[in-house]
Write a structure and sequence with these properties.
The chain is α+β, with helices and mostly antiparallel strands. Helices cover 35% and strands 19% of the residues. Among the domains are: 244 residues, D-amino Acid Aminotransferase, Chain A, domain 1; 62 residues, no CATH class; 87 residues, DNA polymerase, domain 1 (Orthogonal Bundle), CATH 1.10.150; 68 residues, Rossmann fold. The chain has a five-stranded mixed beta sheet, with helices on both faces. The protein has a five-stranded antiparallel beta sheet with strand order 16-15-14-17-18, with no helix packed on it. Strands 5-4-7-8 form a four-stranded antiparallel beta sheet.
Amino acid sequence: MTRQVGRPVSLADTSLKDVGALTAEDAALELERLAGLIAEYDKAYHTEDAPVVDDATYDALRRRNVALETAFPELVRADSPSERIGGAVSEGFGKITHAVPMLSLDNAFSDGDVQDFIGKVRRFLKYDPLMGALAVTAEPKIDGLSLSLRYENGRLVYAATRGDGTTGENVTSNALTIQDIPQVLPAGVPDVVEVRGEVYMAHADFASLNARMEANGGKVFANPRNAAAGSLRQLNSEITKTRPLKFFAYAWGEMSDISADTQMGMVELFGQWGFQINPLMKRCESAEELLKVYHGIEEDRSGLGYDIDGVVYKVDRLDLQGRLGFVSRSPRWAIAHKFPAERAFTTLNAIEIQVGRTGALAPVAKLEPVTVGGVVVSNASLHNEDYIKGIGQDGESIRGGRDLRVGDTVIIQRAGDVIPQIVDVDVSKRTAESVSFEYPEICPACGSHAVREINPNSGKVDVIRRCTGGLICPAQAIEKLKHFVSRNALDIEGLGEKQIEAFYEYDMDKGGVRSPADIFTLAERDKSSFNKLRSREGWGAVSARKLFDAIDGKRQIELNRLIFGLGIRHVGEGNAKLLARAYTSWTGFNEAMNSATDTTSDAYRDLNDIDGIGGTVANALVEFFAEEHNREALDALLAEITPLNVVVADSSGSPVAGKTLVFTGSLERMSRDEAKARAESLGAKVSGSVSQKTDLVIAGPKAGSKLTKAQSLGIDVISEDDWFELVGDN
């Protein structure tokens, strides 16, 4: 069991401001810091099976990130975590593409969050209390490794991990060793069945395994989740066979026939087919009932015999799940209510300065590793130099004005909005030799001046100090290249962070890489180089050939991946998809961006009018394409690759396919989000403002200026009822 040290730390103990009180500049800086932290934890958890923070810590990070992006949609970053699910697939396993993506869940951390979730579901569905209770299931959230099992004609054909949500690892031979997983289903099941659930290890089995591993001189696992993940992902299934793994079924992917009309009914059906289902799963009819189940499970948590980290709620009726649909990386109809976490004391061993791709000098606390809840924490964010000094974002005193110094005993917070972070210091243990930290004014990577700029609009000094070196700063250049080849950008297998760092150090005539275009000329330059890749340490003829083949495999790339890979500030993966869908081709996008450099042009107005793209994003795009060196780099890159046009979903027969729509006023039969989702599924584009390019306006009661403008421009206007009749949803 985990021992909690001292009293729990409340949000009031931190310097974090309420999201609603942040300026756009403050939010952008915090989003930058969050992106780096989450990426670091993703890699440790999903790829290395060695998490450095627990699930509550990780989910709280994402929660803060989502809250910021919701409040400031125009600030979604190029490396935003919001679209990411899981981690990269290990090269040691074959890959399996999930027929239905394996998504993650949004999180709730308080009873109020659960009330909000139910309220949002009701508002989205326009669910009147007179329609009866809104049933929602509640079940323990198992702390293990997600697994998808595909059966065809009743026989198990493969098992795949979640991976990145789209592609997982083929662990079929290992799954066959787990007794809870039937290899053959009973007669009468649908032809195609994908059962999903969690592989886990019971506490008693975990203790026995660790005792056996220690006796044999092997690796001792930190916690049952690590043991389960490491056991399932063994390349030798004979090793997996010796590990006491278990499996709970609770969800499904592709099904040739849905044999029940509720979540509860489907899970009960899995039990009849021979799967283990959790006996604590309940069907509730109010938020109060859900919370009663949650607190009951929380109270009994230590006696369950296996690890859980919360309770999952799902709307019970499958037809309502279908209407609610999905947003970003998660379904609207489900949420995970996480258990509270803890805090711990440790020593601040060092403060390191890392330079990001935007030139930000980010301070990172290097801690004496401390185990909290079975997870080792060795790094923490320090936000910025003012935070180290004990100064908040508006100049207010934090931590009683106490600064942070190397050698201090510090308190690490593991619950709240952003974690892990240092929230306080025990000055009673500070030595007389302790000195305040001197924040560098010179970039440690290139020696250029590092400055805190003044925002020309607000006159406020930026809390982030940035390197002024630009293109001459190797840290910025390397980080930009890492982003370009990252999983959600060009995703070049075999060209990871370490490889990018190594290639950057080589001279250009010896296989160096300084720009994205250099990646695609690497193989040709290698032919004439005396220092061929295959002769370098860590490489061979086979690995070099594989890398060159992987690079060639990305010479045709999806438009949204290319836009995301350019690393334009404030253009996250979600915004890249919006831009790709709006312009459909690189030619269209490039021409529009070059024309939009004139902010009075139609091209700029069209860009700013894209639903989800605001002024901050539009201005960032304009600034990027106005820079001559960016255009030169793009020209060189486009000489090597071909961006693919966006394939528009077949909406033949749709009366609104290809049209630009605007919804305004109070919709009565559907929520605005549901209306937008329905229109886009029919091939329409939804805009946030009315212009001469608008084809149709759907106006509900209390429609205001948008309706007036549409009428003045002679644009067709219809009612909500007319909309349902038009699209055949009566």
